[in-house]
Amino acid sequence: MGRAAEDIRVTEAADEAAKRLCYVEAELLTQQEALARQRVDVASIFAEHHVGLVRLALIMVGDQATAEDVVQDAFARTHAGRARLRDIDKALAYVRSAVLNGCRSVLRRRATVFRRVVPYEPPVWSAESAALLGEERREVLLALRRLPRRQREALTLRYYFDLTDQEIADTMRISAGTARSTMARGIAALGRALGEDS
Asked: Helix crossing, 127-146 with 149-159: angle to 10°?
């Protein structure tokens, strides 16, 4: 019995030592993670990659001021959350993702604004005629949006910008005959969509 009790004590001591070793290893890993987090230097990433990230944002959003704002916001958020960055090698990828997400947000906001823009309505003789005119325009614009891209572009250039066949062809980089046939198909499709007899 004495030997069994001693074996149990040795086993318990080994278990306790293993637990302490696991605790020390966990604490060392935590300290190493803290050191790795401290090593992520957002300022050096900014200095090395700012210009390239602004170029990326510029391609996405189309104007310099907005691109710079997007990159600035991405770096500000990265700096604020730098304690969560665990891998210095992934910090640049994180900033790039933040820039792309910022660009997507800007483009979504722009699309929402363009959808909500109320077109200018000239004064009309009565409220009833204004309501009818507004409804007709809305139907035409909805039908126009459903057309294929090329037909929609050709009709928009013709009827909203009053361009000639040749100007439309030059703008769309197609021949004048193709521009005319594209508009003809677009008008026919628009008539069908609006339920008009041609």
From this structure: 140
